[in-house]
Amino acid sequence: MFIFLFLFSFLLIHVNGEENRNPLSNTIHQQILHRIDSSAYASASVNLNKFALEKLLNYDRILDSLYKAEREDSLAFLENKYNAGANAKKVVIDSLHRKINEVSIQKSEIDTTYKSLIKKALFSFGLWLLIVIVILRFRKKTLTKSKYNFLKTNAQLRSMEGLVTKADQLLRNIPGNRERINKLHKDFSLLSESFSTGVNQENISPAKKYIIEKTEQIKQKLEEEDKINEGIFLQLGEDKGVFELSDINSVCNLYTDIAFRGLMNDEFNFQVTKDFEKNLPPIKINSAAVGTLLLNVLNNAFSSVKEKSTSGVKEYIPKIALSTRILPRFLQIRIRDNGKGMSDEVIQNAATEFYSTQPPGQGSGLGLWVAQSVAKEMHSGEVKIESEKGNSTDVYIKFFK
Amino acid sequence: MTKIIFLFSILFLTGTSIFASLTDELGTLNYRAKVKYVTPEALDQVLIDLKAVQMNPGADSLNDFLVMDTYRAIASGYSANFHFKQAYEAFRKYVVYKENILVIQKEAAINNTLSSVTVRELLDEREMKDRIFKLSKLESEKQQLEADVYRWKRNISISLLVLSSIFALMLVSSGIKLFSRNSNISQNKETIKRIHRKSTIGSMEPGLSNSIQKTFDTVRENTKELKSEHANYQAEFPYSDKEKQVLANIEKNLKEA
Q1: Are A308 and A318 within 8 A, CB to CB?
Q2: Does pLDDT of A136 surpass 60?
Q3: Each residue of A179-213: b (16+ CB within 10 Å) or e?
């Protein structure tokens, strides 16, 4: 409305020329002034100039006040119009500002989450890597250990297969040897019988006596040899698990001889002493299994004394002593060696299968385990080890009554 | 270029000198109109001189003020001399001049306000555009960040998955290897246990074979000794045919051994 009035007045001014331009746009205001002006004209036209002047002065005052009011209104209108638009814009700007704040917060949260995620991921990755490294190290250790065990058992197996071949060769020769021994024994028996026929024991000449005795000695030697061969044959054949009443002394004697013969060689020698209890009652045992037990223990004793001997101990005489005793609760075989001895740790693990202090391919780690199995499981007995590190080892094999 | 600068300098100096002289002239007229006890004739002359002054209303506020004040002074002077008709006319000139000036001032004020409003509107617009741009930029950055987070999560997950898979494959392969190796170890151990007894004797084989041979050697030696001992007493104890046969058998057997 104000704009319209303003434009209308503006148009009037321009149509009527510069002289008639009116600073007021409100028609009522214009009419008021026009009325005063007309009155002034009227007064002037009738020569009432003083009145006309006074009216014109009044016109000037009213013009001032109306102009001031209109000017302020027009400017206020423009300001208000602007403010109306500006308010709408301000609402939009405020809303944008809020939205910007919201998005900034969201962005900041995402950024924080992102950073935290990176930290967590790095931590998790580090942890993962650590676990992986630990597992890989464990894996490597396990694989290395398993490879070592595999190579060890493989070397052991190859070495033992070589020994088995030798044992088979021995086994193949035993029947022939025994047959030969038996033939020789038979022939020497015939010869002895022939030499002894018609001989008076009281008047026998020394020469004849010597010949007969020599023949008997040879027979005895052959008998011993046959027994040893039989023992070896028993060890090499399948264990039939036969338990029979046996003389422990004989069994010990036989297998000590076998061990002695098997282990003794030109390069290394050792003393074997036997101290058997007299009148030992026969007990029910599996002779072949007990033989295996004795051979294993004697083998260990031999290894021990041999190792100590080769280590360069001065004035050392390797000795292995075997004794039997009858005690109130049990019958005991004791095998003592003056070898390198065992530590407590070794004694504790000695009967564990595949536990060996020997380098791979040399000791099977089964000797004492087999001895323990034979004593404990087959005969309800016991194998006990006592040792003084560096000096001696005593192995007690007990058969309970 | 120097000519243009020179021309503009001349125009500027001329303009300023004109304005300066106009204000002085108006000042003089104003002074003349306000002289105490001024005569109507003097006022007539001032009016004539004022009318003669060529000026553009609204161009200079001081000049406009001087013009209007001079008209008012003239009207006042005429009035003091009781020349009310001339006073009325002078005052009317003042009113007309004033109205023109007011129109110009009003236009200028409105224009000023309008331009100020326009400027402010432009500033508001710019601010709004800036905000919209900032918002859009933030949205875009946020989306980029979200995409980065998503991509990063995906890449890390894929990397971890791939690495874990490789690691798992390594473990599985190691497990298979270990299982196979342990199985071989167990087989080897079982075989070792099975052949242990035989191998124990096998380890004694050289000694045992040697000892059998030694036994045969001993028997051979003993037999020789026996024969030689017997030969010394051949006359006393001659061999029977049977004994000869047995001895021959023994020698044959020992030879074969």
Answers
A1: yes
A2: yes
A3: ebbebbbbbbebbbeebeeeeeeeeeeeebebbbe
Residues of A in contact with B206 (CB under 8 A): 166, 265
Query: Any chain A CB within 8 A of the CB of B4?
Result: no
Residue-averaged pLDDT of chain B: 86
Which pLDDT belongs to residue A7?
46
Residue A89 tokens, joined: 């814009």
Neighbours of B198 (CB within 10 A): 22
Asked if B75's CB is within 8 angstroms of A52's CB, the reply is: no
What ipTM was predicted for this assembly? 0.70
Concatenating the DSSP letter of every residue in B80-111 gives HTT-HHHHHHHHHHHHHHHHHHHHHHHHHHHH
Sort A255 into a burial class: Cβ within 10 Å, 0-12 / 13-18 / 19+: buried
The predicted model scores a pTM of 0.63
Rounded percentage of chain B residues whose pLDDT exceeds 70: 90
Query: Rounded to the nearest 5°, which phi and psi values hold at A399?
Result: -115, 110
CA distance A228 to A116: 84
Q: Which residue has the tokens 């065992």?
A: A342
Sequence-separated (6 or more) residues with CB below 8 Å from residue A43: A49, A51, A52, A55
**Cβ atoms A319, A337 nearer than 8 A:** yes
Other CB atoms closer than 10 Å to residue B244's CB: what's the count?
11
